[in-house]
Specification:
The complex is a heterodimer of chains A (263) and B (252). Chain A is mostly helical and 263 residues long. Chain A contains 9 helices and no strands. Chain B is globular and about 55 Å long. The chains are: A mainly alpha (263), B alpha/beta (252). At the A-B interface, helix 4 and helix 5 of A face helix 2 and helix 3 of B.
Chain lengths: 263, 252
């Protein structure tokens, strides 16, 4: 029984290790591909960057704003009803900045991007691989890693940064409006509390998170998108892409928060 | 112009325990057009790994324009692939790009031409292969012959010295690809352009090819000029031409 458990755990450990090693090789090959940037003409990836930014950023605006509004409202209502019980209502602004701007905004945005664009990237690439489009590109002398991954990383960073800013602004404004149905706070007081609570560090942390999310989301989704060897493997790897990117996004969020606010 | 554009020298290519190519040697002079044929598993598809992809492990050597493909590094291989036009039977058109965008893709990526020069060049190819009516459409909306023509246009967009066509015409209606055959025929008489045609139907390329090479079990079993092929009493060629199960080739 114990031996069987140890064998299974060992096998799983080896599997995880070889998976990580394979991903590391993929990342290394991307770095190698960056050397061929000198052969790349920007015009060939310009359209991909525009299309990806439109899909990841602009097309996701509506859903991001709705979720920001609802989450912002929930946090503000909870804060306004709970803080007075502890006599710390003066810290409302700090609490909002901590919950919405530092954590909820970047993480919720990343989750929306993973659900919408991450799954789309993995599906698109795996279908391209299956229909031998990627092979065709390779045989035209196109560095596929550069051509596929690089524009998606640029587009994701730009989109996520923009979406995080919009998420925070909508969550604050929308949340304030919703909270007016529960308790009255003058607009200038609310605004001043937020301004006082915001620090330069918060802005840098949001920027760093958007860069990390912008790199990891397309990178992992492209990795799994390039994995399927047959049609029936496509949904398996798309599902893996979404779940693992989600997992990594949460780890990235914690790591950056720890780095900025704990260390 | 007797420059050797491609040379395979004693190439033996194995994958695990199977020998895919067995001591294969042949060369192609600039301006020559060769049709390579043979049944499934004969080794004709493995030539792709050796000549085009270049990353396979094999014995012997392959030279393109005098340089060994084996010695090329990552970027050297990229340049090699850029220089050889390749068209395969799955076509592999980018599904999110239109006909004209598909054809201009290698130029957008590699060429030093300006956007307007690329457009002019692509329009010329589109006109030649008769794709004007569908140049704004995506592959999803195209017929098989239009897909082939687009993939062909893309393969010749960089004006490669060597064009490698692999099973691309196998399930096409020849009436629909007449304009394409005309372009190919015109190209075949140019002294500076070479063609390798990998096919199961060599008789379809009698007018285009100068030379025919037949493979079986990874080895060359016939090599000859157009007339030799047509009049050959080589038992392999005879068996292949007559689609007979009687002969030196044991077909499963």
């Amino acid at each position: 029984m114990l031996i069987e458990f140890i064998t299974k755990a060992g096998r799983k450990g080896i599997q995880i290790y070889s998976g990580i090693a394979e991903f590391r090789d993929f990342v290394k090959s991307i770095f190698t591909s960056f050397k061929s940037l000198r052969y790349l003409r920007f015009r060939s990836i310009y359209t991909i960057i525009i299309n990806q930014t439109r899909f990841t950023g602009v097309d996701a605006l509506a859903i991001v704003m709705i979720i920001a509004l609802l989450l912002g409202g929930t946090v503000i209502i909870q804060a306004l009803t709970s803080l007075p019980k502890f006599g710390v209502e003066g810290f409302l602004g700090n609490l909002l900045v901590i919950i919405i701007a530092r954590e909820l905004g970047p993480l919720a945005t990343a989750l929306i991007v993973i659900a919408r664009s991450g799954s789309a990237i993995a599906t698109e690439i795996s279908v391209q691989k299956w229909s031998r489009e990627i092979l065709s590109m390779e045989l035209m002398g196109i560095d596929t890693k550069l051509y596929i991954v690089f524009p998606r990383i640029i587009a994701s960073i730009l989109s996520i940064l923009g979406l995080i800013i919009i998420f925070d602004v909508v969550a604050f404004i929308g949340g304030y409006i919703i909270s007016q149905t529960v308790v009255y706070i003058p607009m200038d007081v609310f605004g001043q509390t937020l301004i006082d609570a915001f620090t330069f560090k918060d802005i840098i942390a949001a920027l760093v998170k958007s860069v990390f999310f912008g790199i990891t989301i397309p990178l992992i989704c492209c990795y799994y998108g390039l994995k399927p060897n047959s049609k029936f493997e496509i949904p398996i790897y798309v599902s893996k892409a979404v779940i693992r990117t989600l997992f990594i996004a949460i780890i990235v969020n914690i790591a950056v928060s720890t780095l900025f606010y704990l260390v | 112009m007797n420059e050797t554009i491609l040379e395979l020298r004693n190439v033996t290519y194995r994958r695990e325990t199977i020998t895919l190519l067995d001591d294969v040697s042949f060369s192609l002079t600039r301006g020559d057009n060769v049709t390579i044929f043979g049944p499934e598993g004969s080794g004709i598809s493995s030539l792709f790994d050796i000549i085009i992809r270049g990353n396979a492990k094999f014995d012997g050597d392959v030279f393109y324009k005098g340089s060994s493909i084996k010695s090329l590094d990552y970027f050297g291989l990229m340049n090699h692939k850029r220089e050889v036009g390749y068209l395969h039977g799955d076509y592999g058109l980018m599904s999110n790009l239109s006909v004209e965008q598909n054809i201009s893709l290698p130029l957008d990526y590699h060429s030093a031409m300006s956007a307007s020069e690329i457009k002019k060049h692509v329009d010329k190819i589109i006109y030649e292969v008769n794709l004007d009516h569908c140049k704004k459409l995506r592959p999803f909306d195209l017929t098989r012959s239009e897909i082939l023509k687009t993939a062909f246009g893309r393969a010749i967009a960089n004006d490669p010295d060597l064009l490698y066509i692999e099973h691309a015409f196998e399930d096409q209606c020849y009436l629909n690809i007449r304009s394409l055959i005309d372009v190919l025929t015109e190209r075949s008489i140019r002294p500076d352009k070479s063609l390798i045609m990998i096919t199961y139907y060599p008789q379809n390329f009698i007018d285009i090819s100068d030379e025919f090479i037949m493979f079986f079990n990874g080895r060359i079993v016939f090599r000859g000029k157009k007339d030799d092929y047509m009049a050959s009493d080589n038992p392999y060629v005879v068996q292949y031409r007559t689609n007979s199960i009687e002969g030196p080739m044991v077909i499963l």
